[in-house]
């Protein structure tokens, strides 16, 4: 439907340069090709016609007006650390990279907000607000690279969500350039506000398919005390999951509650010689950022022991805690090293079904003869079964994709969702319809049509 | 546009009775007239053709199918405690009261969720989850009457929002009967989930204009310790507002931070002889539900004193705290007694602008020669300037409406919103466009068109 002006990419670049500096429009095919992908495996990606790197809202408006005039699709990108292919280029598209719009415009300790451009890196914002005694919680594993715009596009999560929630809960208001180049302001900079439909939230997780976020008002919290962690070793994943349920049922509010299975532990040890206890079947990491974390950890240690933990090791210092978290943060990279390639599932189930999810995943790994490591934001029921495979082996690749899909089917069966925090992108688009049903798809398409009637924004993603 | 079958309400009632028990379809004009209004002043209300009180999802579907077939508008209602006229009937409409769908379907301490029908009263749910050691925070002043469905429709707030946020943050998933009678399930029952556009959040605050919520999955928290409060007396509203800024800037997280101005204090004393210090210009109430609330109160007391408080009185017991909160909860009723009628503004500004908001409101009261009492969720910057007037006096009524509007204009000027928690309804519909702008209105209308192409759901509300 969308005309792809393959015949004349030079004309497109020339028109874009009418509103952008020359160096902000890249058209060398060798360069533009390097913008084709995010970090997801098994996702098709096309060849961009041109890559633009605007620095102002007006420049983004010019890009969208040009795209609309020529009917050229636009694929917005942040740091391309996404895991679902949502930022993958389509053939002949304009890749709209927001990475140069990276200014923190305001930090207000009284109003507890930050106003930022989309290209601000998550960790840069986190450190900047820390200096004001404030805290921006969402912390995806890629936080040192990923951008706030990308976090908003994918509605990303992280390790601290079990206490502090996901990106969506921190987005108060947005400035968005629409497909036709007009500017929309949504939401607010106040603590509360209910004027009209919540369009702000509609953009969060929309993977750039409804408009281009060019400015965000983010909610901040006071910086909590530094967290202190413990590690508990279990002889079975089921026991570890039972401990998770007991901890949450007991009214505890950990700032982190993570699970690593034996495959993951071994992979981390192999890569980083961290000396994790790889004789155990599951390692649970819990942390508290309360005024008396040792007391909270003691209560949780007791619950872990009652649930069958073989050993519980509380960190005495923040340095020890950080080492444990470092192991967790390395998990995906370590699993990638096992066979060279991974497909990372992101199934979130009610935490009461976490044990069933882990058990089922182990059965799927056995059925397909594959290594599938699981690390999980256990307190949220958000698992990342990670299929390790050799992409050069066609049969193993096929089995990897089949097992990946079967894991999603299991998640839906258990009352869960196909994606807790990574988004749908290209990787899971066939599964979105299974989760939300035909009525849901129809209405979501209606929303898309309202915002992007020509279908130019990130076509082929979501549905 | 919508055919109003005034000619044959009997036919409508008969068709409705084909799918509902006889007693669930009320058509006696004396009875149906009593369903015309919510609690807002100055809002037009029409005469319903019929009132239906379904008990099942299927019955709601029958109502909507009938309405669609006959092109009859439908106005959904909860307890009608709303303050914006959002539940007011339109002429010839079906009033769809959800009050009989009042079952709590599930409470899960492990998953920290409740699944409820829309007619469950807020306080009933709160008490039910308390029995499981859980907490459902949103607590509008009408919590003993208002329903969860109404809370969702109006995105309502309450006293605890400063720490725990508003209704929207507790709605994980919804079952919604669409205008044409089809059933849509949105969202999830998991802690996290980002599959597709966030339609759940779109329904929160949509005032029944997009669909009929028939089931909600709500997030719960562990029950916190009981809160302990203090009262601080100030010689000026500006000093009280400065204290609010210092408290929030200082990283404190009160579970309540409320302000009552002199007019409000006097009104409460007049009504309930509570012995509040009505020689002061502003009373600040702060509370903490932490493990050591006395320590937090002491720190806040110090900040209040530094900001110029004439006296700071910490409650020693929960009973004393409750008495203070009781005074705050009585404020609107007490202000109503001043002149017989009130119009309650709901302007929320960045808390750094709270003093300007109160100062400006006092000037508006003087300009119009009116009594305007202000109570405020001060920690959120959410003010309720309450215009007291005699509805029998046409000139005073005119001035009341003008001052009410001028207060909203002031709020927008200060970077705020026309509604922090009461919604738009009929009362503020002309102001919504001023807040969200023409592009926002166009997109919101597009969303409405997607969900309700015939315009049957609560027509005339929002925009």
TrEMBL record, chains A, B:
- Superkingdom per UniProt: Bacteria
What InterPro entries does the record tag this protein with? FAD-bd_oxidored_4_C, FAD-bd_PCMH, FAD-bd_PCMH-like_sf, FAD-bd_PCMH_sub2, FAD-linked_Oxase-like_C, FAD-linked_OxidoTrans_Type4, Oxid_FAD_bind_N, Vanillyl_alc_oxidase_C-sub2
Q: Which cofactor does it need?
A: FAD
Keyword Acetylation: yes or no? no
Listed GO MF terms: FAD binding; oxidoreductase activity
In this protein, which residues make up the domain named FAD-binding PCMH-type?
44-223
Give yes or no: UniProt keyword Oxidoreductase.
yes
Q: Which Gene3D superfamilies match?
A: 3.30.465.10, 3.30.70.2740, Vanillyl-alcohol Oxidase, Chain A, domain 4 (1.10.45.10)
Sorted alphabetically, which keywords does the UniProt record give?
A: FAD, Flavoprotein, Oxidoreductase
By sequence similarity, the record places it as follows:
Belongs to the FAD-binding oxidoreductase/transferase type 4 family.
Q: What is this protein called?
A: FAD-binding protein
Record the organism.
Streptomyces boluensis
């Amino acid at each position: 439907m969308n005309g792809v002006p393959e015949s004349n990419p030079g004309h497109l670049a020339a028109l874009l340069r009418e509103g952008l500096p020359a160096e902000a429009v890249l058209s060398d095919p060798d360069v533009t090709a390097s913008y084709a992908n995010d970090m997801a495996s098994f996702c098709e990606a096309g060849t961009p016609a041109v890559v633009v790197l605007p620095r102002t809202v007006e420049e983004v408006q010019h890009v969208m007006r040009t795209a609309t005039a020529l009917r050229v699709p636009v694929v917005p990108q942040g740091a391309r650390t996404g895991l679902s292919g949502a930022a993958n280029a389509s053939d002949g598209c304009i890749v709209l990279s927001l990475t140069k719009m990276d200014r923190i415009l305001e930090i207000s300790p009284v109003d507890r907000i930050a106003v930022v451009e989309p290209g601000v890196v998550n960790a840069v914002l986190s450190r900047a607000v820390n200096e004001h005694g404030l805290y921006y919680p969402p912390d995806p594993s890629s936080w040192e690279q990923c951008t706030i715009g990308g976090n908003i596009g994918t509605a990303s999560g992280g390790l601290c969500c079990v206490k502090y929630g996901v990106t969506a809960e921190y987005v108060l208001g947005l400035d968005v350039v629409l497909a036709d180049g007009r500017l929309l302001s949504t939401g607010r900079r106040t603590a509360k506000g209910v004027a009209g439909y919540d369009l702000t939230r509609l953009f969060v997780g929309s993977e750039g398919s409804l408009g281009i976020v060019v400015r965000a008002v983010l909610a901040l919290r006071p910086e909590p005390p530094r967290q202190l962690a413990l590690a508990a070793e279990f002889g079975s994943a089921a026991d570890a999951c039972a401990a998770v349920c007991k901890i949450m049922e007991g009214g505890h509010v950990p700032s982190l509650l993570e699970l690593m299975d034996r495959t993951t532990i071994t992979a981390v040890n192999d890569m980083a010689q961290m000396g994790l206890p790889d004789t155990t079947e599951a390692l649970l990491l819990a942390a508290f950022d309360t005024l008396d974390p040792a007391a909270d950890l003691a209560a949780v240690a007791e619950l872990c022991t009652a649930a069958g933990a073989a050993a519980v090791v509380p960190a005495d210092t923040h340095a020890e805690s950080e080492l444990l978290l470092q192991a967790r943060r390395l998990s995906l990279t370590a699993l990638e090293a096992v066979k060279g390639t991974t497909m990372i599932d992101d199934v979130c189930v009610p935490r009461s079904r976490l044990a069933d999810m882990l058990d089922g995943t182990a059965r799927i790994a056995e059925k397909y003869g594959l290594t599938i490591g699981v690390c999980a934001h256990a307190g949220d029921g958000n698992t990342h079964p990670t299929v390790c495979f050799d992409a050069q082996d066609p049969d193993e690749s096929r089995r990897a994709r089949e097992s990946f899909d079967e894991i999603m089917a299991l998640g839906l069966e258990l009352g869960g969702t196909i994606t807790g925090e990574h988004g749908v992108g290209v990787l899971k688009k066939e599964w979105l319809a299974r989760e939300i049903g035909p009525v849901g798809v129809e209405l979501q398409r209606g929303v898309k049509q309202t915002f992007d009637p020509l279908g130019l924004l990130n076509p082929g993603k979501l549905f």
